[in-house]
Amino acid sequence: MIGVTHTTYRFPGLVLLVVLLLPPAAPAQCAGDCNGDGSVAINELITAVNVALGVLPLSSCQSLDTNQDGEVGINELIAAVNNALDGCGPLATPTATATATMAGPTSTPEPAVGPAILYFGITTPDDRAIEPTTFEDGIPVFVLPQGRAFHIVAEAGRGVSDIPPGIDTFSDSGPPSFQIQADHPLGNASTAVCDVEEPNAGGVPAVSPPSFDYTGEIVDTLNDLGCRFQNGDPTSPPVTSGRACTPGTACIRFEDGDFGCISPMASRQYCSTDISVVEEFPVGDTVVSARVLETRVSDRVPMPGPVERIIIRVQPPFPG
């Protein structure tokens, strides 16, 4: 598998500047909505530019190709930027006649204004980022021969609210700032929270279908999986928190041996410990969903950013 280099998710500032200055275009669909959630987040704009530059395949964000010509033009990039700024709005839906009407009022979901996840993926045991095997509906898919011996890594930066991402990955008084869950049970799916110490180490329950509602069970599960994400400060014992994008703390190793964040706009990196038999992923597809809350500021309720997803696809063992 190929290691990610420093430049994988970077793009020339001039390209984005040109996109922002050109006049708007009217898309036939929500251009730039890579994950199909009805909005275009900052990380999806980054994906859009990388697709246009040829760094990522079109399959990583199929919605960009609004005219279905197999390419991403400057007008389609403009549409994605406008959708990020103004929202996608109502999308055109084919109807049988031109006189079709809408029944009843519609509601527009509130946009996720908190921190944006700018990179979400996995690394090898020696901390080298693994390229997605493919993309499905814009979601990176990692095909693995087994459900352990890798790390999960997410990186976040400021979102629409311009408040930094929160640090904690575990909280004993409510939901943590970094929130991650899986839609299939990991390991033995123990319901004990933060049971990471032997001889009683246990797995993590599923949240299926994925949900970030703050019920007791979901908050416990967010904390249970988040408890396996730790900082990398060599001067102190590991604690459950995110890391700075610095050589002494970051958990992604580049080809030159340096450590850092893949996204140049990330300010916080969340790194799991080694996924072992305790948290082993089952055979088949497991959707891992994550989002990040803002840093707590005074009495403001910390707002979440957009939900991002990856798929861990564990292949069945060979017969015999």
Q: What are its keywords?
A:
three-stranded antiparallel sheet, alpha+beta, 2 domains, Type 1 dockerin domain, five-stranded mixed sheet
Mean pLDDT over all positions: 83
Largest sheet: 5 strands, mixed
What is the beta-strand fraction? 15-25%
Count of DSSP strands: 10
Count structural domains. 2
Q: Share of helix among residues? A: 10-25%
Structural class by helix and strand composition: alpha+beta
Rg calculated over all Cα atoms:
20 Å
One letter per element, helices H and strands E, the order comes to HHHEEEEEHEEEEE
Looking at the chains present, what oligomeric state does this protein adopt? single chain
What is the straight-line distance between the termini?
A: 26 Å
Outline: globular
Unreliably modeled segments:
1-28, 91-108
Structure annotation, total helices: 4
Give a written overview of the molecule.
The chain has four helices and ten strands, in the order H-H-H-E-E-E-E-E-H-E-E-E-E-E. Helix 2 packs antiparallel against helix 3. It has a five-stranded mixed sheet with strand order 2-3-10-9-5. A three-stranded antiparallel sheet has the order 1-4-8. It has a two-stranded antiparallel sheet with strand order 6-7. The two termini are 26 Å apart. It is α+β, with helices and mostly antiparallel strands and 320 residues long. 14% of the residues lie in helices and 17% in strands. The radius of gyration is 20 Å and the shape is globular. It folds into two domains: 13-86, Type 1 dockerin domain; 111-320, no CATH class. A hairpin with a 5-residue loop joins strand 6 (252-253) and strand 7 (259-260).
